[in-house]
Amino acid sequence: MKLRIEFFYAILFAFLLVIPLAEARWSWPRYLKRLAANEPGARLRHFRSLLVWEWGLTLAFLGVWALAGQPWNSLLLHQAAPIQSYLFLLFSVLMIVVFLRQRRAILARPATVERLRKRLEFARPLMPHTPAERRMFWAVSATAGICEETLYRGFLPWYLAGFIVPRTGALTGIWIAITLSSLIFGLGHIYLGVNQVPRTALVGLFLAVLTYFSGSLWPSMVLHAAIDWNSGELGYAMLNLPRSVSSGADDPLISPP
Predict the structure, then answer these.
(1) For the chain, what is the domain count?
(2) Is residue 255 scored above 70 in pLDDT?
(3) pTM
């Protein structure tokens, strides 16, 4: 049984390394072609596939973890000390307030919107365009917060630390594992372009540091979901601005996908 569980963890680790490369080479280009061909419901189907894959992988991992009888505190899926819980919950709430104020400030400045449109062109295929897509993106954001934090801030540091800590010592090994897991998280977004890998890795490192000092995955789950949700809301708002605020009818972000 132990060998089977260890084999599963090794497969999961390899999966997290290989699948992003396969996505960048295969599934993402085909998705872009469907969007370019104006295939009805292409974006909604893509969102649904994200939900299925992320929840399927995460639930399979959690099932094996429970079957092995391993403690949830090793995965940081437990209640942190009360003072830590309150402090980092407050921090997450304050960050969400900052996101909301920032979004309102951006949308109130047409020139800023135009600059941001150009910077976010790479993410346009992921932006919700319709009310139905917007509602589905809420589920995608929550899923990313729960599933990706479980895998990238829970499983990966724990798995990597098992190899690194015996060779380097606890503190050094944990921080090396945190850094490597953040780089792998960045690699997981390579389909958006090579330039996005270091940027996403830095976000992953920030969330990993938050997890380390809070002693729990819950604050990073909340913040990760809020970051993705805010990005989707901002994209949706920019795509649906009145034409008087936009740069014109031929704006590529406003014309139908």
Answers:
(1) 1
(2) no
(3) 0.89
